[in-house]
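Next up, sample data:
>
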Amino acid sequence: MSGPALHLAVEIDGDGAHPAAWRRAAHSPDQLLAPRRLARVAAIAENAGFTLITLDDGVLPPGAAPDPVGRIGAVERAAFVAASTSTIGIAPVVPVTYAEPFHVSSQLASLDHISAGRAGWVVTEEERPEAARAWGRPLVADADAWAQESRDGVEVARALWDSWEDDVVVRSVATSRYLDRDRLHYIDFTGETYAVKGPAIVPRPPQGQLVVLGRPDRVPAAQLDVALVEGHDLTSVATAVAAAGTPRVFAEVEVALDTPRATAAERVADLERHGAWSRRGRLRHIGPADQLVALLDELSRLVDGVRLHPLVLDEDLAVLSRLVLPALSERRLVARPLPGTSLRSTLGLERPANRFAAAAVQEETR
């Protein structure tokens, strides 16, 4: 673990974790995708002191009738948020089950440049068969195949981020020399379903490597910076943490909090009339803010961070900002990200050396 500070992330896609969360939202359904709303939610999270926001995504709609559903690509939303924030980390969810890893790598590297080193990447899978048809790709049919696509995708992206060394850009007008070709590298990746030669078309990200988050049962620990672990209780979370094997570990926690107008249980019951809040194996807190503070205090002894999934974003984020994060700050359990600090630095992760530059140095010292 990285130290006494507990890093808090919050998922801000849609209206909340419950499929009917839009019924309690503070805006009309047609404002779900409005830029002003996205900027407002991101600003609330940043001002509250969250380390990171994540933005869920997928090629298919995030729900079904009768609920209104809609989504703009997570990378596009993340780029917009990056330009309107200054300290908070931003990690879009980008599946590589069917997407081209070369393009994903380029998009994420660009996001890190836009955010001045505050970008991350949540790796997930497209599991529904309809996704293959939407992409026009052969079906990836089972968990082992999904994991293989994720492993290959992360490996390609990481190699491409290193395919430009840090000092490859020369920009010499006098000699008309703008790049040092000897510091551009082909990655020559060949997997089971595709091959990528490289190099990238975007210079190396400011962080060197973006912070990669994902499930350790789908992506090898060596390819992850942050493992996202689940568990119905603290014991199962502790077991998952022990098996993670990654530099940092975040627990997934779903939250429904008491508000001035209704208790958490009343709010959940109101939404359950319209559909079930399905269990996904995550720790879940339904109750007052002080009990969530106590739970996060306990989790701080097990994990480096927590990703919160609010029941209704407009209601729960306000309580988190007003009551939960200030209480955690008073206990010195959380630390606010500092201006000008990269996401890697905020999480206590070193900026990795470029693999090709390191190999050249080793060759010269032989």
